[in-house]
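REQUEST FORM: STRUCTURE PREDICTION
Request ID: SP-0412
Submitted by: Lab K.M.
Chain count: 1
Length (residues): 188
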Amino acid sequence: MKKKLKISYNAPVVLTFVLLCFLVTLIGLLTGSRSTTLLFSAYRGSVTNPLTYLRLFTHVLGHSGLDHFIGNGMYLLLLGPLLEEKYGSATMLKVILATALVTGVVHCVLWSNTALCGASGVVFAFIVLSSFTAFKEGEIPLSFLLVAILYVGQEVSSGLLIADNVSNLTHIIGGVVGASAGYMLNRK
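STATUS: Completed
RESULT:
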C-alpha cells in the first residue's frame, strides 16, 4: 500500500512571512500604494504617532510591486526553510524582527525624505546567516568570507555607481544582522 503524499507547512515562520508579504503587496497594488505608504514603509515621522513605531517593523512586509516581491520572495523561500530547520522558528522570527527594527531605525535616522519598504534586508540577513551553517569554534568559514567580500563589494559598488531606488545600506545592515545572529547562534 502506497503512502499518500501530503503538503506540509514545513517552515511556519518563513512561509507565513512570505504569505504576509504577498498579501500586503496585493493590497498595495489595489490601493495604489496608499496602504504601503501608510503602514508598510519606514520613514521619518512624528514621534507622537504610533504608526511611526509600527512601521519600523512592518516595512519589511511592503513591496513596491510584484517584481520586487518575487525577487525577495524567491530568496526567502530558498534560504528560509533550511535556516528555520537548523535554528528553529522562534530564532527565525527574532532574526526577521531584529533586521526590520535595525534597518528601519537606521533608515529613519539617516534619511528624512525617502521611504523604505521591502524584505531585502531580511534576505541579506538570511544569505549571510546561511554561510554560518558550517561554523565551528575557532574557525571562520571560507564560505562566509567569500560571501562577505562579494556581497559588501557589490553593495558598495552599486551604491556608488548605480542611481536606483535600492537601499544598499539596508542590504549591508541586513547582512550585519545575519552575521551577528550566525556568530551568536554558532558559538559554543
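NOTES: The chain has one domain: 12-186.
Reviewed by: T.R.
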